[in-house]
Amino acid sequence: MDNRVRVLEVRNVTRRFGGLVAVNDMSFDVHEQEVMGLIGPNGSGKTTMMNLISGALRVSGGDIMMDDQLISDMPARHIARAGVARTFQLVRMLPTMTALENVMAGAVFGHKKLWGRALQVHAMRQLERVGMGTSAHLPTSALTYIDQKRVELARALAANPRIILLDEWLAGLNPTELRTGIELIADLRAEGRTIILVEHVMDAIRSLCDRCVVMNTGRKIAEGTPAEVLSDDEVIRAYLGDDDD
Amino acid sequence: MTRKEVIYAVLVLAAFAVLAFIPSLPNSAAVLSLVIPITMYTVLATSWALFSGPTHYISLATAAFYGVGAYMMAPALEVMPYWMVLPIAALSGALLAALVGAMTLRLSGVYFVIFTLGLAEMVRQVITWYQNNFAGTRGNYVFVDINDAQIYWQLLALALLVYLVGWLINRSRLGFAIRIIGNDELVARHSGINTARAKILLFMVSGAFAAVVGAVMTPRFVYIEPAMAFNPEVSFLVVIMALLGGVHRLWGPLVGAIPFALTWEVIASNFPAQTVLLMGIAFLLVVYYIPSGVAGIMEKVYFRARQQRREVSHG
C-alpha cells in the first residue's frame, strides 16, 4: 500500500472550539485512488475533520498537505481550485436554482472553469451520471431529499476533483439506492479519484473502503482495513461501550 | 443573443426613444418635474437591486454615494468641464463602495445595514466639519448651464446604461457567482468563488451609478449643502421602491419606482410634515404584503395562466 502516491497528508491536526477539542492531534495519509473511510461514533469529530480538509474551518494546530501544497493555510476557495470537492452532511442546495444550475455552480470557478455551452453539456453529463438527467430543469425545492443528495454529488463531480469528500452521502438510502450509490463511488475510484467518506453504513464501509481511520472523541483510535479495524477491541468498545462487569 | 433577447432589446430601445421626446411635449415643464424623480429613482433602485437583490444585503448607503456625487460637482466644476465630472463621480462612488465593502461585506446582514445607514451621516458630518473649520462656508453654489430637459436626458441615458450593465452582469460569471453567494455562501466558497471580491465588485457598480445620479441631479438645486446631498430619505425610498417592484428581475425596481415616485410627489407636496411617518407605513406594507414585489406577483399570475392554458389544451 505504501508504494502508492500519497495525495493527502494530515499531520497532528487539532481543532478547538473554545474549551472543546473536537479534533485532537489527528494524523493520517490518503493515497491516490483510494477510498478511505473516516468512521467513529456520533460526535467523534469526523465532520469537523472533513471541514478542516475542505477549508470550511481553520485548523487550530497541525498541517494538512495536498501533494506539496499546504492546504490548511488556504481559504476554502483555493482548496476547491486545487481539486478538492465535497458534499455536506446536511444537503446544501442552492434553493432558487434549478438542478442543472446547482451542478453548473461546481464547474465555473473552481478546479474546472467552464462557461457557456461547454458548461451546460458538462453539467448535464454529471446529472445523468447520478441518474438525475430528467430532472435537470426542476427547481431544487421540487426534489426529494435523496435526489437533492444526488444533485449535490453531481455538483461536486462537476469540478472534476482529485479528492472527493463525502459526508454521510449514503445515509438514508434504501437498499436498491444504496447498491447504486456504492457502485457509483466504486466507479469514481476506478476513474482515478481519491475519496474520503464519513459513513455509518457498515455495508458500504466493508465493500468500498480500502482503509479506515477510526475516530473517537476527536482522536484516532485505529487505522487499517475495514476488517481489521472493525474487529479491533478499542473500536468495539468505542461503538458499543465497555462490558458490564 | 437569442431571438427573444433581440426582440427585448429592440423594444427597450424603442421605449427609450419615445421617452426621449417627453421634453418636446407642450406642457413639458410640469411633466419633467414628475418624470425626473421617476427616472432618477428608477436608476437608483435598479442599480441598488443589482447588488442587494441577489445578495440580500440591504444597503442604506445610497444617500452616501448619491451625496458624494452631488457634493463634488461644485468644487469639481471650478477645475474641469461638466462632462468630465460624471466619470470622476462614478469613480468616487465606486471607490467609496470598495472601501465600505472591504470593511463590512464580511459581516452578516444586520451589521451591514447599520453601517451603511451610518455611512451617509458620517460623510455628511465630515464634510460639514471640514467646511465649517477650513472652507468658511457651508454649502456650495452650482453654476452650470444645464436645464431640466438635459438632466432628464442624462438620467434616461443612465437608465439605459444600468439595464445594459445589469443584463451583462446577469449573463456573466460574476452574475452567476453572486447568485450562488446569495443562495449559500458556504457552497460558494467551496465552489472556488472569491465571495468577498464578487460582492465588492457588484457593490462598486451600484455605488458608481448612485454617485453619477447625484452628480447629474445637482444642477437642479443651484445651491447644495450637506443636509440636502446626504439625505437618508433617498436611501430608504430606494429600498422601498426596489422591494415594492421586486428585486429578482432586472425590470422589477422599475414597476416599483414609477408608482411610488408619483405617490411620493403627491405626499411630499400635500403632507410635508408627515413624510417620515408615511414612508414608514409604506415600508411595513411592502414588506408584509408583497415581499416578492409586484414583479413576483406578476410572474406568479403569468405562470398560473400559462399552466391553466396548458391544462386546457391537454384536455
From TrEMBL, chain A:
Keywords: ATP-binding, Nucleotide-binding, Transport. It comes from the Bacteria. InterPro entries: AAA+_ATPase, ABC_AA/LPS_Transport, ABC_transporter-like_ATP-bd, BCA_ABC_TP_C, P-loop_NTPase. Residues 8-242 form the ABC transporter domain. The keyword ATP-binding applies. One of its GO terms (molecular function) is ATP binding. GO terms for cellular component: plasma membrane. Gene3D superfamilies: P-loop containing nucleotide triphosphate hydrolases. This is ABC transporter ATP-binding protein.
TrEMBL record, chain B:
GO terms for molecular function: branched-chain amino acid transmembrane transporter activity. The chain crosses the membrane at residues 30-50, 57-74, 80-102, 109-131, 151-169, 200-223, 277-298. It is found in: Cell inner membrane. GO terms for cellular component: plasma membrane. The keyword Ribonucleoprotein does not apply. Keywords: Cell membrane, Membrane, Transmembrane, Transmembrane helix. InterPro entries: ABC_transp_permease, LivM-like. It is a multi-pass membrane protein. The keyword Transmembrane helix applies. This is Branched-chain amino acid ABC transporter permease. It comes from Natronospirillum operosum.
